[in-house]
Amino acid sequence: MTRIAVILGSTRPNRNGSQVARWVVDTASQRGDAEFELIDLRDHPLPHLDEPMAPMFGPSVNTHTRAWAERIAPFDGFVVVTPEYNGGVPGVLKNAIDHLCAEWTDKAVGFVSYGVNGGARAVVQLRTVCGTLGMADVGHQVAISVLTDFENYTTFTPRDHHMAALNKTLDQLIAWSAALAPLRAGAETTLVDS
Ligand SMILES: Cc1cc2nc3c(=O)[nH]c(=O)nc-3n(C[C@H](O)[C@H](O)[C@H](O)COP(=O)(O)O)c2cc1C
After folding, report:
1. Beta bridge partners of 112
2. CA of 84 relative to ligand 1 center, distance in Å
3. What is the pLDDT of residues 79-94, one digit of tens each?
4. pLDDT, tens only, 99-158
5. Each residue of 45-79: b (16+ CB within 10 Å) or e?
């Protein structure tokens, strides 16, 4: 079955992101058409990128990078749950993405963002980043307001239109994750042959 990782891109204390990511995993897991797993960047405390070679040009040498690569490699697609920090992507999330390359390529990605205005500016940046890595970013997305979709800015209260947007995002994400599988198989063959 298609395997999708839900990556939580916020690590700070008192983060709102854990409620959003849990809602994504719980909602998605009720569908039955793919397997979903939460990946919390708190469990992968990577340093600022410290690999001697860029991941697209050479193998990683550091234990933490290899562990991160092994965590990401088995998945067919990703939902990135991201806040918007200062009009863009949280540094911890961008750093985690930058540590790898092949583990992202030819896989699908969808976005669930949150912020004062739904976190859309972080997603605009992530679409560019993920496209550069050869990922297929699905058009549907979920945008959540910390002003109107949280009680007292702390308790997430998802509404019907969020659920509908999430399911549309997942529909496309799962379809594209499966459709790209032959490309990923070809890439593995090429590596073995060379
Ligand atoms: C460093 C920082 C910068 C922020 N910048 C923005 C911003 O540019 N736009 C926005 O909509 N919200 C911004 N916020 C508010 C966040 O959207 C809100 O605090 C959200 O809960 C952050 O996600 P988290 O709680 O999971 O870390 C910022 C919050 C922090 C901590």
Report:
1. 81, 142
2. 5
3. 999 999 999 999 999 9
4. 999 999 999 999 999 999 999 999 999 999 999 999 999 999 999 999 999 999 999 999
5. ebeeeebeeebeeeebeeeebeebbebbeebbbbb
Query: What is the residue with the minimal CA distance to atom 6 of ligand 1?
Result: 85
pTM: 0.96
Which element (helix H / strand E) includes 4?
Answer: strand 3-8
CATH number at residue 78: 3.40.50.360
Q: What residue numbers bound the domain in which 67 lies?
A: 3-193
In short, whether 64's Cβ falls inside 6 Å of ligand 1 is no
Per DSSP, the residues of 64-133 read: HHHHHHHHHTT-SEEEEEEE-BTTB--HHHHHHHHT-STTTTT-EEEEEEEETTTTHHHHHHHHHHHHHT
What is the number of domains present in the chain? 1
Q: 116: Cβ below 6 Å to ligand 1?
A: yes
**Percent of the chain whose pLDDT exceeds 70:** 96
Residue 6 has pLDDT above 90, yes or no: yes
| Residue 117 Cα: closest atom of ligand 1 | 11
Distance CA 192, CA 17 (A): 39
